Amino acid sequence: MSSKNKISISFRENQRNTNQTVKRAKDEQAASAEPDDDKEWTEKPKVYSLPVPKKKRRPSAIKPILVSTATALLISFGLGFLLLRMFVSLTDETTNGSESMPVPATSTGSSTEETATIGTSTLDGYVIQAGVFSTEEKATEWKMKLTASAVSSAIWERDGQYYLFVGSAGSEAEANEIADDLSARDVETYVKPWTVLSERTSIEGVEAEIAEQVGDYVEDHKMNELTEEQRQAYLLTLEDKAPDSPLLDLFKNWESSDKQQLNWIHASKAFEEITE
Predict the structure, then answer these.
(1) CA distance linking residue 210 with residue 104, whole number of Å
(2) Which of 117, 138, 174, 187 is the most exposed place for a label (fewest CB within 10 A)?
(3) Domain regions of the chain by residue span
(4) CA-to-CA distance for 266 and 137, rounded, in angstroms?
(5) How far is 84 from 143, CA to CA, in rounded Å?
């Protein structure tokens, strides 16, 4: 074959195409990996600011003053109300006491003292007798036996004899009822009439005032209607003004629960001793 008819095959074109393909792939890969410079410059950077502390409000000086003033007013009104209640209560007690309590007599002179006259005509009744003894020791012994059996009693000395009474009444029928009740408790009794005071006498001062007031209860045989407040007032008055009065023993020996009406016995005995 001659040199004119030779066929030449070149690989440079293929190599060029291959190189272009590889370069294009690298460019695409780099484009996908690298950030867009234009986009980065267009986005605004985020700015972070420190929190600004809030200013603390200063406490108002008016509010504590108002609270203190209101509290002081409430306390003042409360104390004023309590004092008013106490004053009204004391006034009422004083008023009621002056109506029902005895007023001690003055001792400046006999012309200003009250005088009371007492006698036999006002003090009669029935007594329930548990025994009569010639000596006080024997009467006291039996009195203690009755006390051990929860039975109240009173000793009354008259004409050298010591009578042991366990009750009294304004009528014989009432006295028999008390006697029957005591008999059911194995206490032997005897009902009989009893007259107090053998002669009339006059007394003065505090003793006269109290004797006149208590005498009405004794006469009607209603000693149980005498209130505890009255008894305490009489007791304090006699201890202060007439400590030697027989009436003082009446209020010292007072029976609080007096179903047997022994207070009438104590009162009648005191009146009889005043006349001696």
Answers:
(1) 9
(2) 117
(3) 118-275
(4) 19
(5) 52
The amino acid that residue 139 corresponds to is A
∠ Cα 90 255 257 (to 5°) = 85
pTM for the model stands at: 0.57
- Can you give the three-state secondary structure of the chain, one letter per residue? CCHHHCCCCCCHHHHHHHHHHHHHHHHHHHHHHCCCHHHHHHCCCCCCCCCCCCCCCCCCCHHHHHHHHHHHHHHHHHHHHHHHHHHHHHHHHHHHHHHHCCCCCCCCCHHHCCEEEECHHHCEEEEEEEEEECCHHHHHHHHHHHHHCCCCCEEEEECCEEEEEEEEECCHHHHHHHHHHHHCCCCCCEEEEEECCCCCEEEEHHHHHHHHHHHHHHHCCCHHHCCHHHHHHHHHHHHHHCCCCCHHHHHHCCCCCCCCCHHHHHHHHHHHHHHC
Angle CA 202–205–207, to nearest 5: 70
Would you state the structure tokens that stand for residue 203, as one six-digit string? 């007394």
Q: What is the mean pLDDT of residues 134-152?
A: 94
By the 8 A CB rule, do 217 and 226 touch? yes
Cα–Cα distance, 222 to 171 (Å, whole number): 12
Q: Which residue has the tokens 């109290």?
A: 210
**Pick from 163, 210, 165, 212: which is nearest to 187 by CA?**
165
CATH number, domain 118-275: 3.30.70.1070
Question: In whole angstroms, what is the distance from residue 67 CA to residue 212 CA?
Answer: 63
Task: Determine phi and psi for 92, rounding to 5 degrees.
Answer: -65, -45
Q: Which tokens go with 184?
A: 């059911």
Distance between CA atoms of 35 and 188, rounded to whole angstroms? 132
pLDDT in tens, 64-102: 777 778 787 778 777 777 777 776 665 555 445 444 444
